[in-house]
Specification:
- The protein is an all-alpha fold.
- The chain contains 2 helices and no strands.
- It has helices at about 20-70, 90.
């Protein structure tokens, strides 16, 4: 049984007449198994929640990137893989001389 009282599984013993220690050991084994099963369920729920949160963050980031285009009425551009755009000040070379 889980801590919340739900049934996690069954534990079988095959004795005609269980000895006194058999029942105590069965309780310990059943409790240990319940802890392992609950931990597995919790880990799976955590992984699922993390995946859902990541998907929500990705969807929000996509919406934030698309928002300016949607407001301008321009047709959406096809998505391209992310790449680093060099700083235009760095790639343009030295600044032209100012007229004097």
């Amino acid at each position: 049984m889980a801590l919340d009282g739900s049934l996690l599984g069954t534990f079988g013993m095959y004795h005609r007449v269980p000895q006194g220690t058999d029942l105590a050991l069965a309780r310990i084994f059943a409790h240990t198994a319940a802890l392992a099963i609950e931990r597995h369920h919790n880990e799976r729920a955590r992984r699922d929640a993390e995946a859902e949160a990541k998907a929500a963050r990705d969807e929000l980031a996509q919406a934030v990137r698309a928002e300016p285009e949607l407001r301008s009425g321009a047709p959406p551009r096809p998505r391209r893989p992310s790449c680093r755009i060099p700083n235009t000040a760095d790639s343009a070379g030295p600044a032209p001389p100012r007229p004097g």
